């Protein structure tokens, strides 16, 4: 086994709990090679591969700081560390026999019995690394155009065969039917009744892959310029102070109510009975009303009498000069019966000496970003209540899920920070309300209720490295923009505008898509009302442990950090480009008879359940999921043509590499990818590619000109060399190449692929949030990197950390 010497570097840092954690761990060999972060102590290198003496030194570090050890490493044939010890010291562990694992059988030939204690998330990320925008090939520049065949650039046609490996969903939105808010889609067909695969779908699939393997700019990054929100701990709500937005001569002000007549500036207003009754009766019987027997409404100016912080008499605020000393002025704040057992609303009590803060754009953003997040989060639930005829504000009793919605969740009048808005303000902990007039910077949060969601410090757009933002000028197009086209998303301002062009159609066109398999073999139709699919999750970028990264290279956040950590500073980053790894090693017959009367979602076969189908029952078809009346069968073949014009050798090499992946590597296409649908194989059938000078000869000649032979491997090698040069690493060790290949090949450890859940069996209600709740209370795990291919535990609170090794695999050439 080869031995190398070098340095082990570890930066130790205390987390919020005061515990030391390892950060920025790396092994640098004396030849300059830097070992992967997934193969060093504190990341994924098992302890038995570190000498006892060195491990003892690492474990007993007691202070923050940077530590360096001179080390010796022994590697296996794949370049993975087998032994790590201090330089000049002996190996002090017993030798362990190294077992060579034979090559796996193909999943169609043999299914495996696997453990059910772990799983892989259905989505992951290909790292988007900081770019060298001045790189001659993978950097930014204006495209060369379409006007003529340029001498040193490639043009021509590639004919590609696409073969489905798992069922393909091509839903026809125009023929969709809807019943009880449940949508059912047929397969999209052409005029001849064959499956119709839109060229735009193929182009989108290829563009996503091309962006990843050329580390191009993100083509779309809209709606990420607002701060996201997270659920704050209940204990933090007690420090928030009531406030009201008021219009004064020079603009809006935030009046902070800190009256001495009641704790916290808000008095309790009796409103609801302790036990649930009919909404109107239960509220009116318990509520304190005006003398005219009408209920106080949200925002009403009122005068009240108090007894130990509770309102005992309430009337409309008419003329404050008629008030006696026993009356206090204030505003009614009604948020709704939004928690079980709630009895009181609030009256915000004013005081002559209430401090006020001028409303700045930053303060406005605190409110409007948060309310937008609330309303977007509950959008589907509100539509479901409306469909059932339930008013969002209705008091529905005290059973779980039957409380009323808070006002800010459904009321559009709450979306803008304007005069009359009642809220709670969180001030900087160093601010003393009794001695200083607050400044705008002292306001760190505005919230609609005392225990609220809280905005993260930074926006997703703040974490994305500048060179990865969508281009705003034609002079800064990355390889994917030049090849596939570009539209200015206008989500950021250019440093210097050099043209008025806001779109470019690209150098590539896909056309002539045709299904070559007979229709009877290509289509699978389902009788009756079709096949109800499992619930598909929505993107949740507020879930920092899955979406944010330790740094700009997409390194997962270490376990144990607080949820705010990911958006705490612009030093953090995003995980990268979202992808859906191929579902490998599925049991035989996994896709057979999906509409069988027997509920196969509850029948385990070789450690797997039928993940793609919604379990039978009364909730089999509702607004949360969709049904299909058919799919395109596995082993269906399509042909399509790609016309290119004026691609550089590197641009063409990246495309040819994607079209020439090994047989067990897959692209993902169509709908339902998190459920395993849409894995396809691409192969080049034939091509006619020539440089511009050869096309010039072809069109100038009146006789037949033989097609010049081309060396595809040489063109692909130019692309590989460009990646190596730009990232100073061998091609197969560049993070975005390794991660993309893992996604294309799928996981090889046999663990199932599904959304996080606490049970092995499928939950018909799709309560994935329970896994995240347990994770917050347990290990606080991040989504593992595709580079390491690690799995997650079914229950984060019972993680046995059994999956502690990196899977070795063969990378495509």
Secondary-structure topology with pairs:
Layout: E1 3-14, E2 20-29, H1 52-59, E3 65-75, E4 81-86, E5 118-119, E6 124-126, E7 154-164, E8 177-179, E9 182-185, H2 199-214, E10 229-231, E11 241-248, E12 251-256, E13 266-270, H3 279-286, E14 301-307, E15 310-316, E16 328-333, E17 344-349, E18 356-358, H4 361-377, H5 379-387, H6 407-410, E19 422-427, E20 443-447, E21 453-455, H7 460-463, H8 479-484, E22 486-487, E23 503-504, E24 508-515, H9 519-522, E25 523-525, E26 531-532, H10 544-547, E27 548-549, E28 573-574, E29 577-579, E30 626-628, E31 630-632, E32 637-647, H11 649-658, E33 667-668, E34 679-691, H12 692-700, H13 712-727, H14 735-745, H15 769-777, E35 792-793
Helix pairs in contact: 11-13
Gyration radius from CA atoms, angstroms: 31 Å
Major β-sheet strand ordering: 24-32-7-34-33
The outline comes out as globular
Low-confidence runs: 36-43, 96-114, 804-811
Instruction: Find the count of extended strands (DSSP E, 2+ residues).
Output: 35
* Helical content (DSSP H or I, runs of 4+): 10-25%
Oligomer: single chain
Question: Strand percentage, roughly?
Answer: 15-25%
Count the DSSP helices. Answer: 15
Separation, N- and C-terminal Cα atoms: 25 Å
The overall pLDDT, averaged over residues, is: 84
Largest sheet: 5 strands, antiparallel
Structural class: alpha+beta
């Amino acid at each position: 086994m080869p031995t190398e010497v070098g340095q082990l570097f570890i930066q130790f840092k205390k987390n919020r709990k005061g515990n030391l954690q390892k950060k920025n761990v790396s092994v640098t060999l004396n030849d300059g090679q830097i070992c992967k972060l997934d193969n060093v102590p504190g990341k994924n290198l098992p302890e038995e591969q570190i000498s006892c003496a060195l491990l003892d030194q690492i474990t007993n570090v007691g202070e923050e700081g940077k530590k360096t050890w001179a080390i010796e490493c022994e590697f296996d044939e794949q370049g993975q560390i087998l032994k790590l010890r201090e330089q000049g010291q002996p190996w002090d562990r017993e030798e362990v026999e190294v077992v060579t694992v034979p090559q796996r059988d193909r999943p169609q030939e043999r299914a495996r019995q696997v453990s059910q204690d772990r799983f892989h998330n259905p989505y992951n990320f290909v790292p988007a690394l900081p770019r060298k925008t001045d790189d001659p090939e993978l950097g930014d520049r204006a495209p060369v155009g379409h006007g003529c065949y340029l001498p040193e650039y490639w043009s021509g046609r590639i004919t590609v065969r696409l073969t489905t490996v798992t069922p393909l969903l091509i839903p026809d939105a125009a023929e969709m039917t809807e019943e009880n808010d449940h949508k059912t889609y047929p397969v999209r067909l052409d005029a001849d009744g064959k499956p119709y695969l839109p060229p735009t779908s193929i182009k989108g699939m290829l563009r996503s892959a091309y962006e990843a393997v050329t580390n191009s700019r993100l083509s779309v990054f809209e709606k990420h310029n607002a701060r996201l929100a997270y659920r704050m701990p209940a204990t933090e709500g007690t420090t928030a102070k009531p406030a009201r937005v008021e219009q004064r001569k020079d603009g809006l002000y935030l009046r902070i109510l800190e009256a001495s007549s009641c704790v916290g500036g808000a008095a309790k207003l009796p409103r609801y009975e302790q036990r649930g009754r009919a909404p109107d009766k239960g509220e009116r019987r318990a509520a304190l009303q005006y003398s005219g027997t009408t209920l106080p409404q949200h925002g009403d100016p009122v005068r009240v009498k108090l007894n130990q912080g509770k309102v005992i008499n309430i009337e409309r605020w008419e003329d404050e000069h008629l008030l006696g000393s026993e009356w206090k002025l204030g505003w009614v704040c009604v948020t709704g019966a939004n928690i079980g057992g709630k009895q009181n609303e609030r009256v915000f009590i004013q005081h002559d000496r209430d401090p006020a803060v001028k409303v700045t754009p930053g303060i406005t953003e605190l409110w409007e970003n948060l309310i937008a997040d609330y309303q977007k989060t509950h959008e589907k639930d509100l539509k479901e209540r409306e469909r059932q005829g339930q008013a969002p504000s209705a008091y529905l009793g005290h059973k779980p899920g039957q409380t009323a919605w808070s006002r800010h969740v459904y009321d559009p009048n709450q979306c803008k920070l304007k005069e009359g808005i009642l809220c709670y303000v969180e001030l900087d902990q160093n601010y003393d309300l009794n001695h200083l007039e607050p400044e705008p910077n002292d306001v760190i949060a505005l919230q609609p209720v005392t225990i609220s969601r809280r905005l993260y410090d930074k926006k997703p757009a703040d974490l994305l490295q500048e060179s990865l933002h969508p281009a705003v000028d034609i002079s800064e197009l990355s390889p994917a923009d030049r090849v596939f086209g570009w539209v200015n998303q206008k989500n950021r301002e250019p440093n210097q505008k050099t043209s008025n062009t806001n779109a470019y159609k690209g150098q590539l066109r896909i056309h002539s898509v045709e299904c070559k398999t007979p229709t009877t073999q290509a289509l699978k139709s389902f009788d009756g009302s079709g096949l109800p699919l499992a619930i598909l999750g929505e993107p949740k970028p507020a879930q920092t442990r899955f979406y944010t990264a330790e740094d700009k290279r997409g390194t997962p956040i270490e376990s144990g950090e607080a949820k705010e950590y990911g958006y705490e500073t612009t030093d953090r980053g995003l995980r990268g480009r979202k992808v859906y790894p191929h579902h490998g090693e599925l049991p035989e017959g996994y896709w057979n008879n999906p509409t069988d009367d027997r509920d196969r979602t509850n029948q385990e076969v070789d450690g797997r359940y039928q993940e793609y189908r919604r379990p039978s029952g009364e909730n089999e078809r509702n607004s949360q999921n969709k049904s299909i009346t058919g799919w395109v069968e596995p082993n269906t073949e399509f042909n399509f043509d790609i016309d290119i014009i004026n691609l550089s050798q590197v641009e063409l090499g990246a495309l040819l590499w994607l079209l020439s992946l090994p047989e067990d590597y897959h692209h993902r296409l169509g709908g339902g990818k998190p459920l395993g649908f849409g894995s396809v194989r691409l192969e080049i059938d034939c091509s006619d590619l020539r440089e511009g000078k050869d096309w010039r000869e072809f069109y100038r000649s009146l006789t037949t000109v033989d097609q010049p032979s081309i060396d595809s491997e040489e063109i692909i090698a130019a692309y590989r060399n460009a990646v190596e040069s730009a990232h100073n690493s061998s091609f197969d060790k560049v993070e975005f190449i390794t991660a993309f290949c893992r996604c294309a090949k799928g996981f090889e450890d046999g663990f199932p692929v599904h959304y996080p859940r606490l049970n092995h069996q499928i939950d018909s209600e799709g309560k994935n949030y329970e896994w995240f709740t347990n994770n917050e209370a347990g290990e606080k795990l991040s989504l593992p990197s595709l580079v390491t291919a690690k799995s997650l535990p079914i229950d984060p609170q019972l993680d046995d950390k059994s999956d502690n090794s990196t899977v070795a695999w063969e990378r495509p050439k």
